[in-house]
């Protein structure tokens, strides 16, 4: 298997991620019928390098140095602030308290109701104008 290299000091893995899991994820795509072993290995290695880069960048630019630890908030901050990682913003959202989330939902609901009422008024105005045009003809 390409994921292992036998050496003098024992077995060393070239990738840390389980290839069987990556194969399952790759096969979940309807366009993929078979997976070359080299493609599987390269996907695993690229994923591993990406995760390492994300973690090290988040650690260096977050509060990880202060605490000597990488936290979820460091990762979410990186996803939100760094242009390279912005595609992860939906996957790594900032944590908020449930009470704040409920307040946000209530506000959106209230704003949505107000917006719908304005739209209904505009539709009624349009109908009144159309009726007025028919009467005047």
From TrEMBL:
Q: Where is the Transcription factor CBF/NF-Y/archaeal histone domain?
A: 16-77
Q: Does the keyword Nucleus apply?
A: yes
UniProt xrefs under Gene3D superfamilies: Histone, subunit A (1.10.20.10)
Q: Which GO terms describe its cellular component?
A: CHRAC; pericentric heterochromatin
**What domain of life?**
Eukaryota
| Annotated region described as Disordered, given as residue ranges | 108-137
| GO BP term, example | DNA-templated DNA replication
Q: Which GO terms describe its molecular function?
A: DNA binding; nucleotidyltransferase activity; protein heterodimerization activity
Q: Which UniProt keywords apply?
A: Acetylation, Coiled coil, DNA-binding, Nucleotidyltransferase, Nucleus, Phosphoprotein, Transferase
Cellular compartments annotated: Nucleus
Q: What is its main location?
A: nucleus
The answer to whether UniProt assigns keyword NADP to this entry is: no
Q: Where is the composition biased (Acidic residues)?
A: 114-137
Q: What does this protein do?
A: Forms a complex with DNA polymerase epsilon subunit POLE3 and binds naked DNA, which is then incorporated into chromatin, aided by the nucleosome remodeling activity of ISWI/SNF2H and ACF1. Does not enhance nucleosome sliding activity of the ACF-5 ISWI chromatin remodeling complex.
Q: What is this protein called?
A: Chromatin accessibility complex protein 1
**Which lineage is the organism of this entry classified under, starting from the top rank?**
Eukaryota, Metazoa, Chordata, Craniata, Vertebrata
Which gene underlies this protein? CHRAC1
